[in-house]
From TrEMBL:
This is Cbb3-type cytochrome c oxidase subunit. Binds 2 heme C groups per subunit. It comes from the Bacteria. Its cofactor is heme c. NCBIfam families: ccoP (TIGR00782). The lineage of its organism: Bacteria, Pseudomonadati, Pseudomonadota, Gammaproteobacteria, Alteromonadales. Residues 148-228, 235-315 form the Cytochrome c domain. The chain crosses the membrane at residues 7-24, 60-79.
Length: 316
């Protein structure tokens, strides 16, 4: 924060506290022209207003509030770039990566700073890590039968995976697969799901426009659509079949895909980027390079194990 904003915030904040003090002092004086205990000359519904001073307990509470405000601002950060005498802060600021976050935690401990977020992380680790360690000892397929573990896995899924796959895990257009339909690019076993979460996935569908040309792509699209029983131009499909040999290296000669490479099955009418003629043509024109990020450093293996059990349960 710049010096301008530090001064701006400090002047306004301290000015209000000082203003409250002088306002209280003024209210304690008698400025009515009527002696204390005398009538103010107002009466309503049988109730007469008397010129009485503020109750002492009320006045004392006002003073305590003002003093506490000054002490709080001295101990804690709040006045612009002022960091406070106590060395407390809510979190490490200006963090842009997990590595920076870890280093900031180490630096804060070495400097004796009190970082509330770090304290909460330490508390959570102490309380919950043993639970996740116990879950990690159970195979994914078996853990998927544990209702309590599934509740934990669901919460982790909603926090970390639902942004792409949806809160119902049914995916969405644009390359985010449905996790409930038992159709898996890289395999749907417990270990494969865990591997995907641990290491992430990088798609590598190349663009074929330069190699095949527009006519060649039209022919291959017709053949690919025919593999899933679609009505297509028979002549185009026939011309596309020999061209499909270039695709068979990944998708197989029968078009049923290859889970070892993440190449999808082209015969089941399940399409990651859409199965319309236009969508398939676009895929061949420009290729696809979707990315599934690795959560190894974000969640850790034990938590990933629980998430994998939840994802496994969705289609089993």
């Amino acid at each position: 924060m710049t010096m301008f904003w530090t001064i701006w915030i400090s002047v306004i904040t301290l000015g209000l506290i000082i203003g409250c003090y002088f306002l209280l002092r003024w209210c304690l004086g008698n400025h009515t022209g009527v002696a204390e205990g005398e009538s103010m000359g107002h009466e309503f519904d049988g109730i007469e207003e008397i010129n009485n001073p503020l109750p002492k307990w009320w006045t004392i509470l006002f003073y305590i509030t003002i003093v506490w405000g000054v002490i709080y601002l001295a101990l804690y950060p709040g006045l612009g770039s002022w960091q406070g005498l106590w060395g407390w802060k809510s979190s490490n600021q200006n963090i842009q990566s997990l590595e920076e976050s870890r280093q900031a935690r180490i630096d804060a401990k070495e400097q004796g700073l009190i970082v509330e977020y770090d304290r909460e992380l330490d508390f959570a680790a102490e309380k919950f890590d043993p639970i996740f360690e116990a879950y990690a000892q159970v195979p994914v397929e078996e853990l998927a039968k544990d209702p309590e573990a599934l509740k934990v896995g669901q919460r982790l899924f909603l926090q970390n995976c639902s942004q792409c796959h949806g809160s119902d895990a049914r995916g969405q257009a644009g390359g985010f697969p449905n996790l409930t339909d038992d159709d898996w690019l890289y395999g749907g076993s417990g270990e494969k799901i865990k591997e995907t979460l641990m290491m992430g996935r990088q798609a590598a569908m190349p663009a074929w426009l330069d190699a095949m040309g527009e006519q060649g792509i039209d022919e291959v699209v017709a053949y690919v659509l025919s593999l899933s029983g679609r009505d297509v131009d028979a002549e185009l499909a026939a011309a596309g079949k020999p061209r499909f040999a270039a695709c068979a290296a990944c998708h197989g000669a029968d078009g049923k895909g290859n889970q070892a490479m993440g190449a999808p099955n082209l015969t089941d009418n399940i399409w990651l980027y859409g199965g319309s003629k236009r969508a398939v043509t676009e895929t061949l024109y420009y290729g696809r390079n979707g990315v599934m990020p690795s959560f190894k450093n974000t969640l850790g293996e034990d938590k990933i194990h629980v998430v994998a059990s939840y994802v496994y349960s969705l289609s089993n």
